[in-house]
Write a structure and sequence with these properties.
This protein is mainly alpha-helical. Helices cover 76% and strands 0% of the residues. The chain has helices at 2-15, 17-30, 41-49, 52-60, 64-88, 90-159, 163-171, 176-194, 196-199, 202-231, 240-246, 252-261, 263-293, 327-330, 349-354, 361-387, 391-396, 398-413, 418-438, 444-470, 474-477, 486-501, 508-529, 535-555, 561-596, 611-639, 643-670, 684-697. One of its GO terms (molecular function) is ubiquitin binding.
Length: 698
Amino acid sequence: MANSMAERAASAQLVGPDWAVNIEICDTLNDPSDDVSLEGLQQELEECKNDDVVANILSKGIKLRDYTKTVENNLREVELDSIQDYIKESDNLVSLHDQIRDCDIILSQMESLLSGFQAEIGSISSDIKVLQEKSMDMGLKLKNRKVAESKLAKFVEDIIVPPRMVDIIVDSEVNDEYMRTLEILSKKLKFVGVDPLVKTSMALKDVQPELERLRQKAVSKVFEFIVQKLYALRKPKTNIQILQQNVLLKYKYVISFLKEHGKEVYMEVRAAYIDTMNKVLSAHFRAYIQALEKLQLDIASSSDLIGIEARSSGLFSTRREPLKHRSSVFAVGDRINILKEIEQPALIPHIAEASSQKYPYEVLFRSLHKLLMDTASSEYLFCDDFFGEESLFYEIFAGPFAVIDEHFNTILSNSFDAIGLMLMIRLTHQHQLIMSRRRIPCLDSYLDKVNIALWPRFKMVFDMHLSSLRSANVKTLWEDDVHPHYIMRRYAEFTASLILLNMEYGDGQLEMNLDRLRMAADELIMKLSAQFHKAKLQTVFLINNYDMTIAVLKEAGSDGGKIQVHFEEMLKSQTTIFVEELLLEHFSDLIKFVKTRASEDPNASEKSIAVSEVEPLVKDFASRWKDAIELMHKDVITSFSNFLCGMEILRTSLTQLLLYYTRLSECVKKVQGGSALNKDLVSIQLIIHEIRKYSRTF
């Protein structure tokens, strides 16, 4: 029964899982010999209820037992067919079995071989690890030995004193090879003196005495050598800069060696150089200043002031001798060109003296300071490069500065040339810029001191000019002449010069001082004009002076600014006054009528203008207007020194006359019965034509 169930199960697997379940259920139900348990049957029936095969069988009305037998028969047939297939393939199965067995044998052999390899590789790996540890240990030892070797070699090299070095230090001359040997000796001295390990070495006891003797010998030798070179600087006509650059700088390491290994000797060399250069440069500047003083041209004295009269007063009055260069006292003129020559070489005194040339002091000032800047720049850079001490410069130049200060203070205390002082102030500013561009600060304090000395002196001289205007004696200055006064010309030239010198600087203090000077000049010129008895002459005098002042300010090539504007307004005001005075002189009745009656309504009942009032005016004008204009023209030509200014005033006067006459003509036309005077009225076009004749000459 068990074999039958197994065969059916196998057959069921070949047919399908559903059929196996059904067959198993049927067999269980139909086999009475077995003790069938019905536990779980209901559940299995519920599961088979929805089975498609069972449903199909039931739908066809086939009995389950018959259907089961059919399935069993089919399974037996399939089983028999399968057995036949196995029988046919039996040889192949045997061969396959043999091959599998052979493979197992081979694989077993390979397993044994690989196991041996694995054991050998493990042994080799341990050997390699041992070798690697030995190699690292040997590498570390080699590295340590190399480090020790290099340190020992360096120690030997640094401490040993080669015979060749001894020979050079003791017997050779100071040259390039000697300098290189000094560097080696310096390194050895530093080595034995700095490294604490060296001080404990036994080798030092043998070497140190030899090194000390070499140091003393080297210090002594280079001291003698450098002192000889310094003495060469004292020889007359020696070009110091060439000697410094081409000779001394080649041996600047000597100074470094002395500074490090012979401090006392270095201080002696330093003091010797300071003493030498101080004396040499002081002598050079003293000689140059003495030569420059022979070239100086005196421009102004304490009496050369704006408000000082041009002639002396007294019972036996005689004109004071004019200074040769009196125009330079108040006008800058060509002297301003010195500001464009700031970088030109310094004057060579003997060449200038041979040509008998004289120069204003600002030219000598520029030349002296050009030499000072070039010499100071060279010396400052040399001290920094050769000695490594910038402070050395100030000790050297204490003497030259004292020589220049003594000269400058003497000149400054006797200087009354305000223009020259202002030029020197501007030159000093330019010199400061030059030194700033060179990035050399050695003259900063000196140039500041010069600037501080110049400004108070300029202010003092300026105040002298101002006081001369304020305290001027009007009676002695006045001349019965309406042309520009020489005092006003001095003032104009002086002001224009200072404005020109202040253009690029905008010094507010100087502008304030110029305003004070202008007010003093205004006050003085008004006092001088008041000396004329006629108002017309007063006006002409003022116009001439104002016009001249404006012209000088413009000729200076500068923007006169508010000072020029002030005088232009004053000129305009006085011109208006003169025009009215000139017209009143020739056409007084006409002007009075126009100003008083022409604006009234001629037909008003109370104050009607009668023909009899305007007829004399019309006929008088018609009879002499051309002659009057000609007289006005001659009057203007003789009154004003500036032709252009005179013609402009004449044109203004004629234009004003035309306006007056036009208003008179309009009034005549409105007067009752005024048409009778039309034949006597002069045509406006005719007057304009006549005015144009004079305008063409303008």
